[in-house]
Amino acid sequence: MVILWVMCIVLTVALIALLVLLKGVLGAARSITPTVGAISGVAAAASKDLDAVIALVTTQNYISQVVAGLANYGGSLDVALPDA
Amino acid sequence: MELPVLIIILLITLIILALAVFLIATILELRKIDAGLGVVLEGVAEIATKTAPVNGVLDAINVTLVAGRDLLEGLALKKTGPDAAGLVESCFPGEGQRFLQRVGRRGPVVAIGEEYPRGTATLNALLGVSAAAPPAAAAEPADRISVVGARPWE
Predict the structure, then answer these.
(1) pLDDT at residue B122 greater than cutoff 50
(2) Is B88 left (phi over 0), alpha (psi -120 to 50) or beta?
(3) B124 to chain A nearest CA, in Å?
(4) Which of A66, B27, B29, B39 to pair with B116, CA 20 to 30 A apart?
(5) Where in chain A are the domains?
(6) 3-state secondary structure (DSSP) of residue B146
(7) Distance of alpha carbon B77 from alpha carbon A81, whole angstroms
(8) What is the secondary structure of chain A as a DSSP string?
(9) Contact B21, A23 (CB under 8 A)
(10) Of the candidates B41, B62, B47, which has an alpha carbon nearest to the alpha carbon of residue A53?
(11) How large is the greatest C-alpha to C-alpha distance in chain B, in angstroms?
(12) What ipTM score was computed for the predicted complex, to two decimals?
């Protein structure tokens, strides 16, 4: 009979501990959800910001043209100015 | 049935119920997280796709710019000789020493300043202009060339 009462006490303590631990796990899981939502929003915004990256190709073309013009200018200077 | 046995059965039932309720709630939250991560993954994949060509384009731009820089530095070295590093230093403070390293030379770098008299003399000689009689349209004194105009960011 005493053993049964001891078992009751042990099970009560176990139930309380279990409730505390499971509540902690659920709380942690619930705290992740809004963070994931925020990350999702940032990823979408970052992706939208990168739409302008394609303009780099135009920049590359412009830079090639500028350097080509510079080369022509340098060639003219090379002819016009005497060497040191 | 004795009272302790009934209590034990009740406690075990409560434990099972608590496990079921909390684990089901946790599973539901984890499913929400999974769905959210799916959306994040789509965004990240989009970012990766959009940034994939950046390295190649920037490398190409750098190669072009380095070629232009080398060309101008070679020209400066050829035309101004020992004054080249000083001219580079005057136009781009701090770059003179790196310029010397790039062209494989050593020595102190003395900034020419914003004016380069030797260049003016050369240009005047080429144009047949006397140093004493500057052209009317010239904004600078006849014996000086300013490199300020070479720095449009100022």
Answers:
(1) yes
(2) alpha
(3) 11
(4) A66
(5) 2-80
(6) strand
(7) 12
(8) -HHHHHHHHHHHHHHHHHHHHHHHHHHHHHHHHHHHHHHHHHHHHHHHHGGGGGHHHHHHHHHHHHHHHHHHHHHHHHHHSPP-
(9) no
(10) B47
(11) 127
(12) 0.72
Q: DSSP letters along B54-77, please? A: HHHHHHHHHHHHHHHHHHHHHHHH
Res B143 pLDDT > 70: no
What are the tokens at B58? Answer: 């920037």
Q: Which residue is it, tokens 């500057």?
A: B134
Tokens 């135009």 belong to residue: A58
Write the single-letter amino acid at B93.
P
CB A57, CB B52: distance < 8 Å: no
CB B89 within 8 A of CB B111: yes
Each domain of chain B, given as residue ranges in start order, spans 56-112, 114-154
CA A62, chain centre distance (Å): 32
Amino acid in position A1: M
pLDDT (tens place) for every residue of chain A, 84 residues total: 889 999 999 999 999 999 999 999 999 999 999 999 999 999 999 999 999 888 998 999 999 999 999 999 999 988 888 887
